[in-house]
Amino acid sequence: MMSAHIAVRDLTMAYGSLLIQQDLNFDINRGDIFVIMGGSGCGKSTLLKHMLGLLDPAKGDILYSGESFVAASPDQREAMRRRWGITYQSGGLFSAMTLAQNTGLPLQLYTKYNRSDIDDIVAYKLALVGLAGYQDYYPSEISGGMRKRAALARAIALDPEILFFDEPSAGLDPISSRLLDELIVQLQESIGATVVMVTHELPSIFEIATNSVYLDARSKTMIAYGDPKTLRDHSDQAVVRQFLARASGAGQGKQL
């Protein structure tokens, strides 16, 4: 039996004496599109920061392909991070760099490809996200949806095993949000990555997620884990069923 691609074990998150979440235990399997969900202030983004190594847990561990990230040395952590692609809510593009320069930056920093090879890879990655021909544009010259796609092109520059998304559709209109969802699925299938995302776009949960965890702000722990559609219909937690039933008909604008 293969181990989980990502395993969260006995994780407790806290800011000093302020407990955020405790006793988190769940697996993210290879190829999952995994959503972290829950009510406002439950610790969704904090969990993502722990998974990225931006915060250290008060207790517990996070394992990648069976390797402890918490116990890893700085060099080992860096090696793990090289297998990840990350997009942030704002996109995180460098405003003074063109889309080609933004996308090519990871290739310049972490590979030995020559300029010609990098240019070819950049053109291919931008084409994958629907931005063929936009290499010389700056972020300020394109729409918000295009900036999200450009950030995604940079995130997949190194063909990552895992893609992390923090509110990928934030600020987009419903049509652009749906197109981005479709693009995430297409990229997951084409590069075979595992996807982990925090999102407040409720339709995305049912459209693309294959697995999820629900963090409860009141009990400060996870109270549901599994396919969102199954949780909506069969969870033994009323708050989860209500949350997802409301979500399924709410449309845009409700906050996770």
From TrEMBL:
Coiled coil start-end: none
Cited Gene3D superfamilies: P-loop containing nucleotide triphosphate hydrolases
SUPFAM superfamilies: P-loop containing nucleoside triphosphate hydrolases
Keyword list, A-Z: ATP-binding, Nucleotide-binding, Transport
Residues of the ABC transporter domain: 6-242
Single GO term (MF): ATP binding
One Pfam family per UniProt: ABC_tran
Domain of life assignment: Bacteria
Name under which the protein is recorded: ATP-binding cassette domain-containing protein
Organism: Halioglobus maricola
